[in-house]
């Protein structure tokens, strides 16, 4: 399977660019980075590590509950050029960023104390180098753990085209690229599979302070051109490429279809200003007139999603609420827990609750033991049973009337939650709160709403995957037949409806939207999208909309006219905030001769 493959290391730029499966002109950015590296550090880079951002098509906030998600890598990525440096300061890093004033140069060095490597990461504010340090941390403590072998001193230069805080996972792209950089420059890439890199990057990203699931890192590492990935996390990480209903002819850029010959002649080439080049129309999509396919369009709400600083009351709180909901459901439904399973207190996930509910003994480390049909059944039934998590409904003697009478909005207090868990207060804190800093607004925790979202969203992912598989079959078999076209349209409508339901659930049950995201997704639907939803953690950042291929330009024009923050944006500035995406390939390393 895809996750067990080695990380690609390319020795020629032809190979590197063609692996991206895109008609974009990548050369200017790569050239510019290499030229700048040489002018700043006085020698050529030894490697460039590349990791893409991703757009999540469906499956929001369910990866840390260990349910499958459906993202695709985007063409926008992080590139890190690096080379070892000759100095006596072991493992020291000079880190610079091409976006200079926003991300000032940093110099830091790890220290080896008490049998472990340390780097200072400030979790109270967002610093760009924290993501570089996070990637380095895991490499140090995995490959230099004994303290005997020393990491080499390194110079690095970073450039990124994934907008930060936009839900397109610039953070995971940074962490994956950084992890790859330090692996490559220390000659530790051999034997590291894509799956291992995902595990390392997941661990690394948690060091920045967000207890995230593994979706972003897996998408950034494992993705393949032209398909989305159905990523599952239980019992182990697994990834299945899912073809998208993108029509019979693939979408191509309107201009720059001729790819500049790979150059990277660092001593002669002039730096290009790729991102501000008015002729760089690389993200506009030309649409085959007769195509019946759909295209995913990202639109940034321009509200910056502050996930790290806001993690206490947002992301990390949701992680705790879903975990506690899983325990309480086990108790309410009389399912095996703790002693029955492992002999000690466990933090059971909502995904594991499904297996227990269906009476299937699932073991970690093996193949998933639930069939798609079983998972479907379990999710549907548990979606209904999650109503028992409403205040007052969880006690054994709670009658049906109570279920109907109690509002979901209220949530439960800390005391009620501890009581529902069946744990002593100390044990509860140890199991659910000792490793994370959270604060519930008004002291109320929302177990019902969070579990209801997770079960329904996980079900929508299964339905979306199924519809994509059917859609591709139709397009492949009957590209021109009217019946095929109508059927394809019907599939796009199914996908769009699932995206709309997902948005509704994120907004109402998971409460991870914001007024601007609600407004922008409504505008996108009114502008003709089959469906539109927030993507990524939410509370700001991007939306993703499914749009008929033949309608993309018209759609963009309508959204521009209707969404107030876009009114004064033209040309490149507009393309920065709203663009069609084509699934790209995952992370790799380019090695200079
Ligand atoms: P974003 O907002 O794109 O960084 C975050 C998490 C994911 C996932 C989504 C919500 C990180 C690194 N990633 O994505 O694991 O939980 O939110 O579906 O925090
Ligand atoms: Mg992120």
Automatic annotation (TrEMBL):
Cellular component GO terms held in the UniProt record: cytosol
GO molecular function, one term: ATP binding
Residue span(s) of domain GHMP kinase N-terminal: 147-221
Domain spans labelled GHMP kinase C-terminal: 492-564
Protein EC: 2.7.1.6
Spans annotated as Disordered: 245-279
Pathway: Carbohydrate metabolism; galactose metabolism
Residue ranges annotated for the Galactokinase N-terminal domain, each copy included: 36-84
GO biological process: galactose metabolic process
Highest taxon of source: Eukaryota
EC class name: transferase
Catalytic activity: alpha-D-galactose + ATP = alpha-D-galactose 1-phosphate + ADP + H(+)
Biased composition (Low complexity): 248-269
Gene3D superfamilies per UniProt: 1.20.1440.340, 3.30.230.10
InterPro entries per record: Galactokinase, Galactokinase_CS, GalKase_N, GHMP_kinase_C_dom, GHMP_kinase_C_sf, GHMP_kinase_N_dom, GHMP_knse_ATP-bd_CS, Ribosomal_Su5_D2-typ_SF
Record field: compositional bias (Polar residues): 270-279
Pfam families assigned: GalKase_gal_bdg (PF10509), GHMP_kinases_C (PF08544), GHMP_kinases_N (PF00288)
Keywords: ATP-binding, Kinase, Nucleotide-binding, Transferase
Entry similarity comment: Belongs to the GHMP kinase family. GalK subfamily.
This protein's name: Galactokinase
Organism for this UniProt entry: Gloeophyllum trabeum (strain ATCC 11539 / FP-39264 / Madison 617) (Brown rot fungus)
């Amino acid at each position: 399977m895809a996750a067990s493959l080695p990380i690609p290391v390319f020795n020629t730029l032809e190979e590197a660019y063609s692996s991206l499966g895109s008609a974009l002109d990548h050369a200017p950015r790569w050239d510019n980075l290499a030229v700048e590296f040489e002018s700043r550090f006085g020698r050529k880079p030894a490697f460039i590590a590349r990791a893409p951002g991703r757009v999540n098509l469906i499956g929001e906030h369910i990866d840390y509950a260990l349910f499958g998600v459906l993202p695709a890598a985007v063409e926008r990525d992080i590139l890190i050029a690096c080379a070892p440096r000759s100095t006596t300061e072991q493992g020291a890093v000079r880190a610079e960023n091409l976006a200079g004033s926003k991300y000032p140069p940093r110099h830091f060095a790890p220290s080896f104390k008490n049998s472990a490597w340390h780097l200072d990461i400030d979790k109270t504010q967002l610093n760009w180098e924290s993501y570089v340090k996070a990637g380095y941390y895991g490499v140090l403590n995995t490959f230099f753990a004994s303290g005997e072998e020393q990491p080499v001193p390194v110079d690095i230069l970073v450039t990124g085209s994934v907008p930060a805080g936009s839900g397109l996972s610039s953070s995971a792209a940074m962490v994956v690229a950084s992890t790859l950089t330090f692996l490559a420059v220390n000659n530790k890439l051999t034997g590291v599979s894509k799956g291992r890199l995902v595990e390392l990057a997941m661990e690394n990203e948690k060091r920045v302070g967000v207890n995230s699931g593994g979706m972003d890192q897996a998408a950034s590492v494992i993705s393949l051109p032209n398909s989305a990935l159905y990523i599952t996390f239980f019992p182990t990480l697994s990834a299945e490429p899912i073809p998208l209903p993108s029509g019979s002819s693939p979408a191509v850029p309107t201009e720059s279809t001729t790819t500049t010959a790979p150059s990277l002649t660092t001593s002669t080439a002039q730096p290009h200003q790729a991102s501000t080049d008015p002729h760089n129309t690389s993200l506009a999509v030309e649409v085959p007139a007769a195509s019946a396919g759909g295209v995913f369009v990202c639109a940034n709400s321009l509200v910056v999603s502050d996930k790290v600083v806001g993690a206490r009351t947002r992301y990390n709180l949701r992680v705790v609420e879903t975990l506690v909901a899983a325990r309480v459901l086990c108790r309410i439904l009389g399912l095996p827990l703790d002693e029955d399973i492992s002999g000690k207190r466990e933090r059971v996930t909502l995904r594991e609750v499904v297996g227990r509910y269906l009476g299937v003994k699932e073991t970690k480390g093996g193949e998933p033991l639930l069939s798609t049909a079983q998972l479907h059944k379990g999710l549907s039934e548990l979606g209904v049973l999650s109503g028992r998590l409403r205040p007052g409904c969880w006690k054994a003697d709670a009658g049906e009337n109570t279920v109907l009478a109690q509002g979901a909005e209220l949530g439960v207090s800390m005391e009620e939650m501890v009581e529902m868990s069946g744990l002593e207060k100390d044990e509860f804190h140890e199991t659910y709160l000792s490793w994370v800093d959270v604060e519930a607004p008004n002291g109320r925790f929302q177990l019902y709403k969070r579990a209801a979202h997770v079960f329904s969203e996980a079900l929508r992912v299964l339905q979306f995957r199924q519809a994509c598989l059917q859609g591709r079959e139709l397009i492949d078999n009957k590209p021109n037949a009217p019946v095929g076209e109508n059927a394809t349209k019907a599939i796009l409508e199914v996908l769009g409806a699932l995206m709309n339901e997902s948005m509704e659930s994120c907004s109402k049950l998971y409460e991870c939207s914001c007024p601007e995201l609600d407004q922008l997704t409504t505008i996108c639907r009114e502008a003709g999208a089959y469906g539109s939803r927030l993507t990524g953690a939410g509370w700001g950042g991007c939306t993703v909309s499914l749009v008929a291929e033949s309608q993309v330009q018209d759609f963009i024009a309508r959204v521009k006219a209707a969404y107030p923050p876009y009114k004064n944006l033209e040309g490149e500035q507009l393309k920065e905030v709203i663009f069609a995406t084509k699934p790209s390939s995952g992370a790799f390393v380019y090695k200079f001769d």
